[in-house]
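Forwarding these from the shared drive since the link keeps breaking.
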Amino acid sequence: MHLTSLMVLTATVIGLGTLASAEPALGTWQTQPDKKGQIAHVQVTKCDAALCGEIVRTYDSDGDRITTENVGKRVFWDVTPTGDGEYRGRAWVPAHDRVYAARMDLKGKDRLKVSGCLGPICQSQLWARVE
């Protein structure tokens, strides 16, 4: 095997291993509309050993991009996988200005069920992958 072929093969194997181990919840997700009809794009990134999410864009009920006081704010943190596409952590809900125990469940590749719970009472949204 030529050195060039070996280098291409090695790079391919390394690349496939990186894709296989990539965190499936990473990316940008669109929330459901709030009471005003506004939606947000939340970017999920690695924060140390956990995941966190920050509002990066917001849109009004007509789909026009707007700037709100929540852009740039972290809405969840310390989120870690518990298995089978489920995650647990903490979430801040802007509408309530409160922190809750959070749960995220991947539904396929492009849907993320996000729940916040205070004791036995939970509310959830189904987010769609944007990027």
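-- next protein --
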Amino acid sequence: MTANKYEPIQEIILEITTGSKRKDATDDAVILDIGGHSWELDLPKYDDFERGKTDRYELAVPEGMDSSWFRFLCFKKKGDLQRDDEWLLAKVKLTINSKVVYEKDNLNALLKVDRNRWCAPDFSYGKAGE
């Protein structure tokens, strides 16, 4: 039998950039979902997801987390479904244990009432151990 191929996780840093046009920002909560865990992205005393800004999150790592938890990389915008509030995800950079495992520019992923979730179609981190 082979040894566990999954990487133990000590550090997760997520950087996301909001689009720069007038209606690209949101005040709604955004959730990062990796398959084995989810985080609500919110920096205390800071206005997240403002147009043209890059927000950096040092995410809490649950005990025992390894790369097998990362089955996909998705963002979900929460909020009032009656309100016409959109968010344009322009760029994503995910760094795990000081190594960039996913980075995409010019995503132009629009999350809104009827399409409030975006998943990275080419995300593969964590699947090597399968």
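The mean pLDDT is 89. The beta strands are 12-18, 30-35, 38-41, 54-59, 70-77, 87-96, 99-104, 109-111, 117-119.

- D.
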